[in-house]
Specification:
By secondary structure, the chain is of the alpha/beta class. Helix content is about 30%, strand content about 15%. It contains nine helices and ten strands. It starts with about 20 loop residues before the first strand and ends in a 36-residue tail after the last strand.
Length: about 375
């Protein structure tokens, strides 16, 4: 699939080989109005998250520059690090993941199991997180090891390029041509920037909504303490220097409560960024009776959050209580849930009546 380091042949497009991730419809009645919430489940990517797409694009961009003795280094909250660790291991080159204490324990174990070196930066950066100090560490390493390659997910155009040419058109094919609110979570801003590029070039009839967390500066917000990993940032996105409108900022309580509610009400377990997206979608539904469908690009699943979002002890330690985000919301079709024990290897595996590569009419609202 991918050319080995130093190979001169033209690289292939990842979408050529990878099946689409499924889209699951969750039919709701919000304050008495029927809506459809489409969840695109990126946990069904080969590397278990949306960041697998980014990692493939970054690898393709830097592969010919990698010294097999020195390898590459990247700052990561977890998912990108796991994907890059797998790709580097497949090509037998060293990889260093620069993380912080908020990384999931299970993700940390998996990254190490792939042979990656893990460096944990545990000094807060004064902007609500650890990102700025993670980047400082990488810059110091590069000064001492100039042959070390940093793909730099924060500024490399391969990041938004992957989503403009791959993720966004895939979702568009799956959900059809009509009007749709599309919600994208933000950390580096690469995914949202890629979706903006696709929508501008194709004139897709999308209301593109950025979703960030309170305390994040990714889209120009005021920095503050953040406890969720994988969403938000300590500095503005390089890909979206002027921010994005509309953007909704979600609290940790909203995101986590939505994860718990979605599991209880629809049998779906998702990660914290996905919880923030669904919380934002419910907020949009409540503000407009005319907004009848929304799609959430869910970055990963619940498996990497067993020791955080889905741990009562972790929630107590961080003062996060279930605030009842599902009040006034009924799940009309509870059958749209993943089948227990489903194999996530194929486009139609897992979630029940999921939309695969063939597409469907995403605009049909239950009667």
């Amino acid at each position: 699939m991918w050319n080995p380091v130093g190979h001169d042949a033209a690289p292939e497009t990842p979408a050529t080989h990878q099946a689409p991730t499924p889209v699951v419809p969750v039919r709701l009645r919000v304050d008495g109005v029927h809506r459809v919430l489409w969840l695109k489940l990126e946990e069904y990517n080969p590397y278990g998250s949306l960041k697998g797409r980014t990692a493939l694009a970054l690898w393709q961009d830097v592969a010919t520059r990698i010294d097999p003795r020195l390898g590459l280094i990247e700052s990561t909250s977890g998912n990108l690090g796991l994907a890059l660790a797998a790709i580097a291991a497949a090509h037998r080159v060293p990889f260093t993941a620069v993380v912080d204490p908020r990384i999931s324990a299970s993700l940390l174990r998996d990254v190490r199991a792939l042979g990656a070196r893990v460096v944990t930066v545990d000094t807060p950066d004064g902007a609500g997180g650890y990102l700025l100090n993670r980047l400082t560490y990488i810059e110091e390493r590069l000064r001492h090891e100039p042959g070390l390659v940093w793909p730099n997910q924060y500024t490399n155009d391969a990041n938004p390029g992957a989503h403009a040419s791959w993720t966004a058109p895939e979702l568009h094919r799956q959900t059809g041509e009509g009007p749709l609110s599309v919600l994208v979570a933000v950390s580096t801003g690469g995914t949202l920037a890629g979706f903006r590029r696709f929508a501008a070039e194709t004139r897709a009839d999308w209301e593109l909504v950025g979703v960030d967390v309170v305390g994040s500066a990714a889209l120009g917000g005021t920095v503050g303490r953040r406890v969720l990993s994988g969403i938000g940032a300590s500095r503005p996105s390089s890909f979206l220097p002027h921010g994005h409108r509309p953007t909704l900022h979600i609290t940790p309580q909203e995101a986590v409560s939505t994860c718990l509610w979605l599991h209880r009400a629809a049998g779906l377990k998702v990660g914290s960024s996905s919880g923030a997206l669904v919380a934002a979608a419910l907020r949009l539904f409540r503000t407009s009776r005319e907004r009848t469908s929304a799609a959430c690009l869910c970055p990963d699943g619940a498996g990497r959050y067993a020791d955080t979002v889905y741990s009562a002890a972790w929630r107590r330690a961080h003062g996060i209580a279930d605030i009842g985000v599902g009040r006034g919301v009924d799940v009309v079709d509870p059958e749209a849930r993943p089948r227990p024990g489903a194999d996530p290897a194929g486009p139609d595996a897992g979630p029940g009546p999921a939309v695969g590569a063939g597409g469907t009419d995403a605009r049909q609202v239950p009667s």
